[in-house]
Amino acid sequence: MCGIVGYVGPSADTVALDVVMEGLARLEYRGYDSAGVAVIDADGVQMRKRSGKLVNLRDDIAAHPLPPTTTAIGHTRWATHGGPTDANAHPHLGGAEQRLAVIHNGIIENFHSLKTGLIAQGVSFTSETDTEVAAHLLAQAYTQSGDLTAAMLATVAQLDGAFTLLTVHADQPGVVVGARRNSPLVVGLGQGANYLGSDVAAFIGHTRDAMELGQDQIVTITPDSVSVIGFDGTPADGRRYHVDWDAAAAEKGGYPSFMAKEIDEQPHAVADTLLGRTKEEGELVLDELRVSEEALSQVTKIVIVACGTAAYAGMVAKYAIEHWTRIPCEVDLAHEFRYRDPVVDGHTLVVSVSQSGETMDTLMAVKHARELGALTISICNTHGSTIPRESDAVIYTHAGPEIAVASTKAFLAQITACYLLGLYLAQLRGGSSAVEAAAVMRDLREMPAKIQTVLDRMDRVREIARFMADTRSVLFLGRHVGYPVALEGALKLKEIAYIHAEGFAAGELKHGPIALIEPGQPVFVVVPGPDTPHDLHAKIVSNIQEIRARGARTIVVAQDGDEAVVPFADEVIRVPVSAPLLQPLLTVVPLQVFACELAVAKGLDVDQPRNLAKSVTVE
Ligand code: AGP
Predict the structure, then answer these.
(1) What does pTM read for this prediction?
(2) Distances from the Cα of 495 to the Cα of 160, 405, 564, 599, 618, angstroms
(3) Same CATH topology for 257-445 and 456-601?
(4) For 197-215, how does the pLDDT look when each residue is reduced to its tens digit (9 = 90+)?
(5) Domain extents in the chain
(6) Which pLDDT does position 471 carry in this prediction?
(7) List of E strands, 381-470
(8) Fewer Cβ atoms within 10 Å of its own Cβ: the N or the C terminal residue of the chain?
(9) Which residues are catalytic?
């Protein structure tokens, strides 16, 4: 949930602070209700921290400059324990002499008992946070060992829960020690300097050589060294890799918002996710899969677990996977899956879908699935994140960094990766499934260009959005794979324009929701192509007639050439013809653009909407 940055460099100057502040600016989407930094100088630990957005911290530092230093840590916070106040902002100082500082991402689940014990020892607290407990434990351990790494080792042994910790001590300038359990931490490998971050965006402007830390590992960085041990004290190592995002990729690149940029990046997100997934002759190869073809061939049920937008990607996938593989496929909200006593065994494949790879609800669902003996595959957009590490295998989406809290390009990439998984399973089953899989792959390869065509047609959608800036309620209807698209369109409007919006399966209208229709009620309708089986097109056209007859303002997303909708539509938004199961890759785009433009028309911050954070790493 929080943004974490650490730096050690060769000389005492302002570089350390500049690096940390730049990293925090890139990580701010992870949570932004307070921020702080700590540096080490000859007088000890110097700290600045402020509630509110990062600009408040920047202003405070300008008013009260920090000294030049070789060593700095920084943090942006999304409150869990303790409200967003200056006192609860990180870093937190440990020990009576306050010569140690710590920052933290996650939740220390046993902090109450630890805090009680510390208070009984006479330790006084200045905040309501769980993090401050770690600060005092680290200070006590340091007093015993005189070594920051040993202090971290002794401290993590006392902590339960999910945590990434970074700590510095005034006695050890030039050293930052980090630890991770169920929370992300990556090392940036520099020349004469080293970096730590919640993800690579923290240091992407300085190095692209990274090392992901594994579960229960401690890393100690100095300007010239990086050493890793396990929580058991034995030497360990992380997985080194080259970050293929350049610095610009994490910036807005001239767009007014990350969300607008990421909507336009969707053709590349889908194309890049397809890259390298087929052989010359078209056969699918999912090289990250570490689950045997034999085990996959024996799968008798698939359960997709995810939250929010990722769950709607899973709902789209259900239709496709069941059609191509004939394997029963359920979709569960991750936070419901664990508690419904699911029927899962060794022949169940549990597929998690997560952009961040850190959503705690989804992570805990994956862990529960593994306890029940299921095979687990993660579909994830963030290398080095926790959910892929906890899964048997991973299919990475290649959407690039998704900075805006509202998920757009990751959604399309998730759907694409789910298609790839379904087609791969179909291919394994052979026969007609394999033949159809090859045909679908050809259609899939045409989708990036078709998405671009939709993006090139969005002027009218933006006009409609600006015209509707004062609307207070919007409904979204869809059938078949258009139903999860309707749900996603409603979620986008809720989360960035703060407008009540609701998505329905169009067939559900007559079972209640049609009572909501009154004159002028805006209703988006996602219309399947006329060639969609089961006469679904005619059915939804009659739905449009029903709501139009009651005064609804119908905004219809329909395929090129579909004239049947015209008599009943106040607005028609055209998308290219495509295979029925692939249509969500096109039909969601106007809904994303509509929500983004309407939020901008309302003067709202589309990238950092209120109450939300990019990665929900608490349950
Ligand atoms: C979508 O716009 C939201 N940001 C939210 O629903 C998000 O999709 C959900 O929290 C899941 O996040 P994840 O993909 O990182 O697991």
Answers:
(1) 0.70
(2) 32, 9, 33, 10, 19
(3) yes
(4) 987 888 988 999 999 999 9
(5) 3-243, 257-445, 456-601
(6) 95
(7) 393-396
(8) C
(9) 2, 614
Question: Which helix (DSSP H) or strand (DSSP E) does residue 194 occupy?
Answer: strand 194-197
DSSP characters over 118-158 = HHHTT---SSS-SHHHHHHHHHHHHHHHS-HHHHHHHHHTT
The amino acid occupying position 266 is: Q
CA of 308 to the centre of ligand 1 (A): 5
pLDDT of residue 1: 46
Burial class of residue 64, CB neighbours in 10 A (0-12, 13-18, 19+):
exposed
Q: How many helices (H) and strands (E) does the chain have?
A: 19, 25
| CATH architecture of the domain with residue range 257-445 | 3-Layer(aba) Sandwich (3.40)
Mean pLDDT lowest among 148-157, 331-340, 450-459, 528-537: 528-537
> Mutation test of ligand 1: which of 312, 359, 386 has the most ligand atoms closer than 8 Å to its C-beta?
359
User: What is the percent of the chain with per-residue pLDDT over 70, rounded to a whole number?
Assistant: 94
Instruction: Quote the ligand 1 centre to 615 CA distance (angstroms).
Output: 7
For residue 359, the ligand 1 atom closest to its alpha carbon is: 16
Terminal-residue alpha carbon distance, the chain: 11
Residue 181 near residue 104, CB atoms below 8 Å: no
Best probe residue, ligand 1, of 356, 414, 494 (max atoms within 8 Å of C-beta) = 356
CATH number of 3-243: 3.60.20.10
Distance 306 CA to ligand 1 centre (A): 8
Taking the C-alpha atoms of residue 573 and residue 555, their distance in angstroms, rounded to an integer, is 7
3-state secondary structure of 574: strand
Contact between 410 and 385 under an 8 Å Cβ cutoff? The reply is: no
What digits encode the pLDDT tens for the residues 79-125?
A: 556 667 889 999 999 988 899 999 998 778 788 889 999 999 999 99
Which of 183, 198, 309 is the best mutation target for the ligand 1 pocket, counting ligand atoms within 8 Å of the beta carbon and taking the most?
309
Please compute the mean of the pLDDT values over residues 227-243 and round it to a whole number. Answer: 93
Helix (H) or strand (E) holding 343: none
pLDDT surpassing 90 at residue 323:
yes
456-601: CATH number: 3.40.50.10490
Residues with CB under 6 A from ligand 1: 307-310, 354-356, 359, 362, 405-407, 495, 615-616
Whose CA is closest to atom 16 on ligand 1?
Answer: 354
- pLDDT greater than 90 at residue 456: yes
The residues facing 210 across adjacent strands are 188, 241
CB 30 within 8 A of CB 1: yes
| Non-local CB neighbours of 386 within 8 Å, separated by 6+ positions | 182, 183, 184, 215, 357, 358, 363
Which amino acid would we find at residue 581? Answer: L
Give 472-484 pLDDT, tens digit per residue. 999 999 999 999 9
